[in-house]
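note to self — DONT lose this again. spent like an hour looking for the file last time. sequence + predicted structure for the chain T wanted, 113 res
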Amino acid sequence: MNDLIEQSCEACRADAPRVSESELAKLIKEIPDWNIETRDGIMQLEKMYIFRNFKLAMAFSNKIFDLAEAEGHHPSVLTEWGKVTVTWWSHSIKGLHKNDFICAAKTDVLWNE
């Protein structure tokens, strides 16, 4: 288990630094099933989870909402029949912060519960 899940998000101000290229290379290895997507020039972490039905997808989405509130960091969550797509990025810095990797790792823990 990686050490990201033992960490908590820190307050992220507009002047907080984005992860560096070297940090990105290290952190992405800790969440290998996540993809880096760039939208409107903003790097984001994204992963799709597959479910047998809508009810299970919604239950997982609710767990993510609880995580987001607990961490004070909020993703984009698209819930559809049989799948949930989760996208983490730091809105205030328009890019990736360590908080995004912490929450991505914790999302995977929720998936495995």
